Amino acid sequence: MTRVVNFPSDIEKIKREATEWIARIERAELTSVEKTELNVWLATSPAHEKQLTRLGQLWDKMSEIGSSTSEQVQQKPVEEKKRVGYLGYFTYKVAAVLALTIVFPLALYLQNLSAITSTNGQYFTKIGEQKNIMLADGSEILLNTNSIVEVIYSRDKRNIDLSQGEANFDVAPDKSRPFTVKAGKGDVRALGTNFSVRLDGDLVNVLVSHGTVRVRAQEKIDAVYPAGQAERRGRNEVIVGAGNNVVFDDVQVESVAQESEQVLAKKLYWRKGYLAFDDELLSDVVAELSRYTSLNIIIADEAIQSMRVGGFYPINNLETVFTTLEINLGLKVEKVSGNYYITNPHT
Q1: DSSP string for residues in 152-205
Q2: Domain-located, residue 95
Q3: Any idea what the CATH number is for the domain that residue 322 is in?
Q4: Nearest to 179 by CA among 189, 168, 170, 194
Q5: 293 and 183 share a domain?
Q6: pLDDT by residue (tens digit) across 276-302?
């Protein structure tokens, strides 16, 4: 013989849970923990609040019947009369509890959540443009040329997705919500610090100005590794402090280097709107300049690629670099069909 089992419907489950809450409310004032639990239960579905209110009204009707009966039956105990009188105000009591648990705290919850997520979204810069972004928690992002980030804040996380370019992050301390920047297949996590992240092909370059950060080459690899894979863990994740330059690819951390204050300042000079070069190859200088213009910069004479260039140049006026090349190195820079050509007129 087949046995048929009837499972309770959703409405029956809600009724049962609402009845349990009615019993708790009748028993005594809800504790802070119970109010939180009720808040969560009410926020799950509008049917929950509706059912709780309906049951409160139902108990009031029952109390009215009980009150009429008690008037007719004088033998009813005094305690029962008190109980009947108490139940006459049950709808009011349920409404009061709802006001305390759902109206004010939930409104405050939504208000706080709205404030936290108010700066969520995607931000980008055009070629040659820089942009400063102030986030809801007081953290700041300085977005460099031709870059894209997405801010994804929630109540327990502060996530940033850098999908293109370079950005500097000045992180406001918040131990309850870690600040994590996803870059490539890895990520960089910090609490109360300042660091920059740059995407360069398959490589991610992390430079720490202040504080400490954890760098992972593969964000999906957790902290637990099978025996014999300790070496892999060491190459996947590092924790570094100020002055360190970490480079990683899609698989592992390639290098960790402690930079001098001078080198650190030079690499981060872009945050002040300048490019800094210190006796660097012309080919490297041109590669960096190319990030800040949509025009091609072409070294037409291969022999001059190894010439050395130095100085500070404003990002919004790259013509000063070309002027320096012509005056100090005797080179010639011509703009032809929207491209810059660098040649040596003496050869």
Answers
A1: EE-SS-EEEEEEESEEEEEPPP-TTS-EEEEETTEEEEESS-EEEEEEETTEEE
A2: yes
A3: 3.55.50.30
A4: 189
A5: no
A6: 999 999 999 999 999 999 989 999 988
Q: Residue 195 CB: number of other CB atoms within 10 A?
A: 27
Q: Which tokens sit at 337?
A: 């069909």
Judge whether 259 and 293 are in contact, CB under 8 Å: no
Q: Which of residues 260, 281, 299 is at a domain's end?
A: 260
Identify the domain containing residue 133 by its residue range: 121-260
User: Tell me: the pLDDT tens digits for 309-319?
Assistant: 999 999 999 88
Q: Are residues 134 and 250 in the same domain?
A: yes
DSSP structure string for 299-315: E--GGGTT-EEEEEEET
Question: How many structural domains comprise the chain?
Answer: 3
Query: Residue 198 has what pLDDT?
Result: 97
In whole angstroms, give the CA distance from residue 136 to residue 119. 6
**What separation in angstroms does the CA of 165 have from each of 55, 168, 183, 278, 329?**
59, 11, 10, 23, 31
With pLDDT > 70 as the criterion, what percentage of the chain qualifies? Answer: 75
Residue 92 confidence (pLDDT): 59
Give the residue carrying structure tokens 């648990």: 101
219 occurs within a structural domain: yes
Answer with the residue of higher pLDDT: 34 or 169.
Answer: 169
- Return d(Cα 236, Cα 215) in angstroms, integer: 8
State how far the Cα of 328 lies from the Cα of 309, in Å rounded to an integer.
9
Q: Is residue 45 part of a domain?
A: yes
- Do 137 and 251 fall into the same domain? yes
CA-to-CA dists, residue 68 to 57, 73, 81, angstroms: 17, 9, 10
Task: Decide: helix, strand or coil at residue 214.
Answer: strand
- Among the listed residues 305, 338, 306, 311, the one whose alpha carbon sits nearest the alpha carbon of residue 327: 311
- Of 230, 260, 290, which marks where a domain is finished? 260
Give the Cα separation of 313 and 291 in Å (integer): 14
Establish if 250 belongs to a structural domain: yes
Looking up residue 200, the CATH number of its domain turns out to be 2.60.120.1440
Query: Tell me, what's the pLDDT at 6?
Result: 44
Q: What is the pLDDT of residues 211-263, one digit of tens each?
A: 999 999 987 765 444 444 444 445 889 999 999 999 999 889 999 999 999 99
